[in-house]
# Entry
Amino acid sequence: MNKERANHYVIDLFKTFSIDKNQLLAKQWRDALMNYKEDVVKEGWGQIVAECRTRYLPPLKVVYGLLNSIKRSKADIVVLNDFEDELTPQDRQNQHRFIKLIQHTMKEMREGRMSEAEHLKAHAAFFREIGMTEDADDLLRVVAEMQSV
# Structure
C-alpha cells in the first residue's frame, strides 16, 4: 500500500476513535499498513476496527497478526490455484496409478515377496513409462549403488 493510502486509513482511524494526535504513533501505524497490499488491508480493516475502542488502539502486534494471517491465506489460495491449473487429466490418472503402485509394492515388500531393489525398479519403470526418464535413471542409480555394496 502506498504512503498516501496508508495515511488516509490512519487519519480516519484516529478521528473515528478520538485518538490524540501523536505523530510517532501515526507514523508507526502508517508504516505497518504500508507493509501490505491494499486488498489485504481492506479485507482486515473491519477486524482491526473491531479491536479499537474510544481513545484506544490495539497493539501493532495484533494488527500485524491479523494482516499476516490474511496475507498467508491469500498466498495459499494463489499457490493452490496455480497448482490445480497445471494438472491435466493425464496427470491425475498418473497420480492415481502411482499411488496404486506404491500400495502394491509396499505390500509385496512387507510380505517378503519383493526386495527394495525390485520395488525401486518398478517405480523406475513407471517413471520411464510416463516420460520422467531423469527420475527413472536416478532410481536405477540408487539400485546399482545398493547392489554394489
The longest helix spans residues 60-86. The CA atoms of residues 91 and 130 lie 9 Å apart. The chain has seven helices and no strands. The two ends are 59 Å apart (CA to CA).
